[in-house]
TrEMBL record:
SUPFAM superfamilies: Class I glutamine amidotransferase-like. Residues 241-264 are annotated as: Disordered. Pfam families: DJ-1_PfpI. CDD domains: GATase1_PfpI_2 (cd03139). GO terms for biological process: regulation of DNA-templated transcription. This is DJ-1/PfpI domain-containing protein. InterPro entries: Class_I_gatase-like, DJ-1/PfpI, INH-QAR. Residues 21-181 form the DJ-1/PfpI domain.
Amino acid sequence: MTDQTTNWPDHLTGDAQPLEVGILLYEGHTALDLVGPYTTFALAGMKVHLVAETLDPVVSDDGGMTIAPTTTFDDCPERLDILFVPGGGMVYKPMLDPATIAWLADRGATASYITAVCNGPLVLAAAGLLDGYRVATHWASRDQLARLGVEVSTERVCIDRNRFSGGGVTAGIDFGLTVVAHTLGEKAARFAQLVMEYDPEPPFNAGSPESAGPEIVALRTRFMAEPDTALRNAVSHVLEQRAATSSHPVSDENADPAAGIVND
């Protein structure tokens, strides 16, 4: 990858115009989905906007972390370099919120990069921003993203033209570093990685359904039963809206969702 040193952040060169990043902030997001990429972007000197409909504090899906938006849909810069959507246990809420979908569609029309991690791509898909693109998502959300007609990748980080996406939660750090490397150069990304001391050595080999085994997968399924049901219902609602307007390709809800998943 070629280093674009003229685009490096101020603390590396002192003369760069920072990239404008808009991060969708919504009730019920997963904190690490947001904080991992946010940290990599900020360390690279990007100007990060936490965007919500209002400036009211927003609570994460575990109910324990509250984050204050820095700007609103109306006041966010009209032209963003990077549009980013984190995932969350309540991702179905922004999927069904007309104001959120309208804002994403508007900023997505001009943003240089359209990005998401975890199950965040479902919100982009609901806004019509992933038609014809190949996208990664959390392993437990692949079937629902495929229902929306998106070609689903099993990669940890997936790049398809100007669509950058990551798998579940912790993949957001890999995703963030990939975006930084692509936009500002590999040295900027390596700098951010070193500052974060991102050198993972997980104590257990349980980061995928295959390695975790059926007992742990079953625990996760029970734990997320209500959010998973709400997400399926939200996808069905989006498909019903598409059928009513005929503005998007409509997936057959009864079709095999695995048909749209590409193993990489």
